[in-house]
Each structure stands twice: as C-alpha cells, then as structure tokens.
Amino acid sequence: MDAVKKSEELPVLQVSGLKTEFPTPRGIVHAVRGIDFTLEKGDILAIVGESGCGKSASLLSIMRLIPHPGRIVEGSIKFEGKELLRFSKAEMRGVRGKDMAMVFQDPMTTLNPAYRVGEQISESLQVHGLLSGFPKRLLRREREKERAKVMELLRQVGIPSPEHRHLEYPYQFSGGMQQRILIAIALACRPKIILADEPTTALDVTVQAQVLDLMQEINEEFGTSIILVTHDLGVAAEFCDKAAVMYAGQIVESGNIEDVLSSPLHPYTQGLLRSIPQIGQRNELIPIEGDVPDLTDLSPGCSFAPRCRDAYSYCNNIEPPLIVLDNGREVRCHLHM
Ligand code: SF4
User: From ligand 1's centre to the CA of 293, what distance in Å?
Assistant: First the structure.
C-alpha cells in the first residue's frame, strides 16, 4: 500500500542535467546543455524559444529518439521514478506510444500516405499488445474489438463519420483533420505524457484553436501531462500552466506561465514579449537583434550576452548559474544574483 502511494506521488517525468550533443564536421553541436524540469500528473508545460534553441532536441532526447551520431552525454530522465537512460532499446520501444507519445509538427510527413488512417491507428494498439494474445478462433472477435477501438479514438478527436473515414487515406483529410489523426494515434494507448512538437504550426488559426481545445479536453479527462514545444507565446499563454524558456540549449527562465509572461525576469523572455503583439497595447514591436549563437562555438560567459540590452562586462566571461527564487521561479541571469 505504501509502495503504491509512494509511486503515485512521484512526478510523472523528471529531467535533470540533460545534455545532448551532435558531432559534426564543424565541431560538436551542444544542442541541449543541462536542462532540468519536473512534470507532475496533469501538468501542461510550454517549452518556448526561437528556432535553434534546443526545444525539439530536448523532446527527442526524452523519447530517446536522437538520430545517430547525436547522443545524450549526461543527465537523467526519470519516468515515474524509472531511469529511462538505463532502459534497453526494446524496453524503450515499450515506453514509446504506450507511456509517452509524441505528436509531430507536420502531419503530412508523419502519416504514411500508403496506409488507411484506421490501419495506422490500430498499428499502435497492436504494437503494444492491446489487441493481441487472443487464441486463433477469436481472431474475428479481436478484429471487431480493434475496429471499435479505432472508431472510439476517431470519435474522441472529433472526426465525423468514423465508420467510413477510417478507411480513407491521409490525403483525403485536411491539415487539421490529419493532426487530429496524429493525436488519435498518440492517444491510442492512453499515454501518461504527450510530447507535442509545434503541433499547430502548420495549421490555420481556427484549426489551431480546435486542436488545442482537443488537447486540453484530453488533459482534463484523462489527466494526461503534456509538454508543448512552441515558438508562439500566445498559444503557450492560452493553453499551458507552466513555462520553460529555452535559449542556446539551456532553460533560461521557468515558472508558472502567468508569472513568466506578466513579469518576465530574463532579458531574453522580455525581448520575446516585446516582439509580439499584446491585446490592448499599441506598443511598437521590437525584435531581438542578432541571431541565436552557433552551438558549436559558445562563449564562456552568458550565451545571450551579444544580444542582451542589459549585458555588462561580467556577462561575457562568467556563465550565469541557475538561480532558484522563492516563488518557484528559476532564472539564469547575473542580474538576479
Ligand atoms: Fe543579459 Fe548578463 Fe543576464 Fe546574460 S547574464 S541575460 S548578458 S544581463
């Protein structure tokens, strides 16, 4: 009983000191440089930042899907207390889809154009044994169970007439509907975490809202924790309850989403907010000057220093530590020492 209670109290995901590198002919790309965060059951965490800040590499690291020759060089990824970095390849295949599922940015390149959507959803159920183990004489019953499950999933993600549409191919669906099918595949085994990498970027605003509403319903109904990678602070504000701002492979600020967006502490977060329109404000939009740094050639000091309005000489030479504040917020900047 105590053991059960203890396991219920464990965070669903705990990432500590995670570092991922990609060797290239130009040098080692330090894509993820020691990130830490905790995801509790039912949390929706936004990971925000510009392209090239390590957001997608962080998600792929958590799923242990970093393409060769990239590698995780340090850190820990604990799923319900179990260290995923010690799992064998076969054990990880059992976790992916079943406990942690990923929704990618572009459904057109993720769905297989040669298979009916119903087949692609039921594949996930078969891989994780949710439809196997029946004696041969029950194969027909198994097929009926499979069909019913696919119908249920399509209905849950709002695909009309699933009894007909499960037989169609991806090209017969709009972009929004394809993204719903990807979410149905992700949901097939009722994962405890969904990792969504820019799931609405390829969609128009109306469909974007529908997909986010759907993910919110899933979160509320099943207590599924969600990590949403996005460069859109508006989407993060509307949908998430925690935020982690990434820059140059590090989390430079994190906390409750309302606090981070209403009183940003890190100059990078402040710059991001100055560069997007805000409802009720007519301020001029000011982009952050300069580019994200070359991750093969980082300076010894703060990686944001060349673009920072508040930088002082100290910043160029000394890397700022992560500062933990009283209200659960964290910031990586010398100004808050
Ligand atoms: Fe700017 Fe210095 Fe803070 Fe870096 S440490 S964000 S350069 S003030």
Answer: 14
Give me ligand 1 centre to Cα 201, in Å.
30
- Asked whether residue 208 is domain-assigned, the answer is no
**112-166 pLDDT per residue, tens:** 999 999 999 988 888 766 665 444 455 777 778 888 889 988 988 888 999 999 9
Upstream peptide bond of 69 is cis (omega within 30 degrees of 0): yes
Atom of ligand 1 nearest to the CA of 334: 5
| Domain count across the chain | 2
Is 213 among the domain residues?
Answer: no
pLDDT tens, position by position, 11-22: 999 999 999 999
> Are residues 197 and 90 part of one domain?
yes
Same domain flag for 136 and 260:
no
pTM of the model: 0.89
Residues with CB under 6 A from ligand 1: 266-267, 302, 304-305, 308, 310-311, 315, 320, 333-335
What is the C-alpha end-to-end distance of the chain, expressed in Å? 44
Angle at Cα 262 formed by Cα 261 and Cα 265, nearest 5°? Answer: 75
CA–centroid distance, residue 315 to ligand 1 (Å): 6
* 5 pLDDT above the threshold of 60: no
Question: Is the domain of 134 the same as that of 66?
Answer: no
Ligand 1 pocket mutation, candidates 269, 331, 335, criterion most atoms within 8 A of CB: 335
Task: Judge whether 218 and 44 are in contact, CB under 8 Å.
Answer: no
3-state secondary structure of 163: helix
Same domain flag for 331 and 286: yes
Atom 1 of ligand 1, nearest CA residue: 311
Q: What's the confidence (pLDDT) of residue 61? A: 97
Mean pLDDT of 26-47: 96
What number does the ligand 1 atom closest to the CA of 252 have?
Answer: 6
Question: From the CA of 234, how far away is ligand 1's center (Å)?
Answer: 25
Asked whether residue 303 is domain-assigned, the answer is yes
| CATH code of residue 310 | 3.40.50.300
Question: What is the C-alpha separation between 55 and 52, in angstroms, rounded?
Answer: 8
pLDDT cut 70: percent of the chain above it:
93
Is 237 a member of any domain? yes
Q: Which domain holds residue 33?
A: 10-99+193-203+222-336
Rg (CA), the chain: 21
